[in-house]
Amino acid sequence: MAMPETLPDIKKETRPDSTTSLEPGYLVICWDDPVNLMDYVTHVFQVVFGWHRQKAETHMLEVHETGRSVLLREGMEKAEFYVHQLHKYNLHATLERDAS
Amino acid sequence: MKLIRLGRQKLKFEIGEEEKELLFQVLLFYPLVPATHHRLNQDRRIPDPNGNQQLLESALRDQQQENRALLAKLLKQPRRFTQSEGGYYVSFSRPEVEWLLQVLNDVRVGSWLALGSPLHQLEIQKGMSKPKAQKILAMDIAGYFQMAFLQALQKYSPTMND
Question: How many angstroms separate the CA of residue A15 from the nearest CA in chain B?
Fold first, then answer.
């Protein structure tokens, strides 16, 4: 895992991100469970998000090792859509408002 | 179950007679996961959580009905399975494999929920009740076929032809 860099004492600029300025962002989170097969979870991430295998596997391993993985940050409607897609495959996924 | 041919549109397998019987038996359990199982969120800051939850459950119920109809159709197609030396040949389109994966996983997750969501893998033991043993078996069999389909899909290359 990459280490954080030590930066000069510069005040962080607030980024005028279009999503944050117009509407709150929502996080699509996938949670670990002891029943879904690792290969299956990777496959679902590939199908639902159109990710290549390596990216899907990285998120699957994060779920497996840390208990959860933030998969996406989106507007409410899109985030809900993705959570619903993950539920169709019986993965444990939730929607959270992004606090950052 | 062995992958025989992998094309852009279809996957052809050879399946043993007993395997076919097991696949049919395990598919007949579908659906097992209640639509109320999935929670959209636990975040109170999200607008109208109850309304959204109801929409989710209704959509999941609709999807289960649709899958059940597709499944009934599949199980009633004797011509889909043709005799081979070691059992049967069977072909599935890629969308069919996709929903078979969903259906099999529903049986796996639903059996696990019915077993009380154990943290560790359960094994069938002497003296265990029949329903409990059946659920453990269903989980294992569903997982076996899921892995067979997933391994077949992993072999896919976009340059393949049917």
Answer: 23
Enter the DSSP assignment of B14.
E
Q: Is A26 on the interface with B (CB under 8 A)?
A: yes
Residue B40 CB neighbour total at 10 angstroms: 22
Distance from CA of B126 to the nearest CA of A (A): 23
Residue A91, domain member (yes or no): yes
Residue whose C-alpha is closest to residue B108's, from A36, A82, A49 = A36
In a domain, A17, yes or no: no
User: Among partner residues B39, B40, B143, which is closest to A37 by beta-carbon distance?
Assistant: B143
pLDDT per position as a tens digit, A56-86: 999 999 999 999 999 999 998 899 999 999 9
As for the ipTM of the complex, it is 0.85
Range(s) of the domain holding residue A78? 26-97
User: Does A80 touch chain B if contact means CB atoms closer than 8 Å?
Assistant: yes
Q: Is residue A72 part of a domain?
A: yes
